[in-house]
Amino acid sequence: MNSLDFFNHLVENLGTYFLIWSLCFFTYCIALRKCYFSIFDPLFVTIFFTSFSSSVVVYLFCFGLIDRRYFFSFCITEACLVLGIYATGRLIQEPVCFSKKEEFSLKSTYAAIYLYSFVFTVFLIAQAITYLKFGIPLFLTSRLTTYSGSGGYGILGRLLTAYTNVLIYFYIIFSFYLKEFQGPFLHFLNRATLVVLFVSFIFSGSKSALLSVVFVFYSVQFYFSSIFPEKVAQADRKFKGLLPLVLILGVIGAFFTLGIQRKVTDGFEIAGLLAERMVATGDVFFMAYPHGVIEKVKQKTDIFTATFVDFLAMTRMISSSEAPEPIGFALTAYHYGPMPFGPNPRHNILGYLYLGDYAFAYSFVLGCIIGLFRNNRLVCFKRGYLFRLIHFLFFVQVRTIWSDPPLAVAHINGILFFLLPPLLFSLILSHITLKYNRQPKFFLSKPRSVI
To answer: Which residues contact 414 (CB under 8 A, 6 or more apart)?
Structure first.
């Protein structure tokens, strides 16, 4: 079933679909109520959009458009993923924090400044090259194909993806929590970062850019609620006061972006397109399950290679010719002909394709991985806001395992290959700085010992 057939059927049964979505969303909220701490928690947002994709499967089953074995396979794998999240323990409501001196040590602070500077510089250069070489993504037909067929330029997209949340994180830390210690350099860097991120979010054509800011903000609030209680409470009050404005700006931004990309000016038509995009998070299901199409796109590879294909290709463990075709591409080719994009291969689909009736084991393992980071156990083992940054970045990417395991691996590769090496180098530079000059005032306006 292609998109046209599905949405033609859906338009005639909107009331039924809305009821199904409501039940799915309520079920997820109840089942995972102990695993998120705010409606702005990245996991809660994942649950929200997952409810749209899951409702597609239930909708297809209710109208007899898919075989019941696919429906039961979906339900079992989805339940196993949720059980996997709980299998690694309950959410720690408040992370273990140490003293301010331990959390924001002099060594960590200088390392953070060096890393902040490096990430900002690379981000700015990558954005500039992208705009000059490929144009502004907002005005392209599809921003997802910006780097398609560009050869080595694809690394620019990886750098931008890996560094966006890092910049937001450091901006919040140095402009709010450590504002009183800003020297001339940090003051300039914070202002420049704000401008660059603002321009990037507008020109990127991404309708979820604002969510990145919200994710980082609430994660920082969560991490440091016990070490800066006054500032966290103050920030919460300000954000709650600005929440209506943030939501309005988010909706306006989504309308503006979608209107430009689809060349539509009518508000009602744009609203319909936005609703269509949300429902289409389950496009892989209506493209794979009806008429048993999923049986016709099976490939001669294994679940490990299909999941870790990006890592294996980057490390040259497999050649590009040996990399399996993405399932989303195969489904798109089946319905529309070859195209350089396709739906996200959710864990239910990948598991069934490569493991058949044993797909539940794959989903359970993925759930355990999500739960491990969601439960914040790793964040208790180390001190300092640099480690908390790494934990946050891993969790934000790990949660996408739910919707696209290979994409989650690709994003984690960005952290491993593009962030950890400069972080290590920044720590070395910090050690050298402390050894030869303990208080370089160009970076910090006050001695850090006063924290």
So the answer is: 158, 159, 161, 162, 397
